[in-house]
Amino acid sequence: MTEIATPLADPVLPPVLAELLPINGILSALNPRQRIFIASYYSNGRNAAQAARDAGYASDGGSLAKNSGYALLHRRPKITAAVQRIDRILAHRFQNAFARSMDGDPHGSAVMSEVYPLLPKDMRP
What we know:
The protein is mostly helical. The protein has seven helices and no strands.
């Protein structure tokens, strides 16, 4: 039987996510391990297998981690809903930053460069 590590650290969100107002409401509906999974998922470039290991859902680097990451993203309703809400918020933030950068606001370009890596591939322009 494989022993699953218990996560000890609080989740650390990427700065662009941490400053979003609705993020605390989204994360409050999740248990601590799920919050760590979400934070790790966005911190490590949307790698679900690594996020599953970081949150203690899997201890190996092989198929167990990949399966756990996939199952968490696609078969756990709370996590699926949280990721979808966060992705929509990020997409809106990117669109607003794009509009501001077209108006000549240099802050808009900076926000776009922070948000772009966090967007899912199907939402990237």
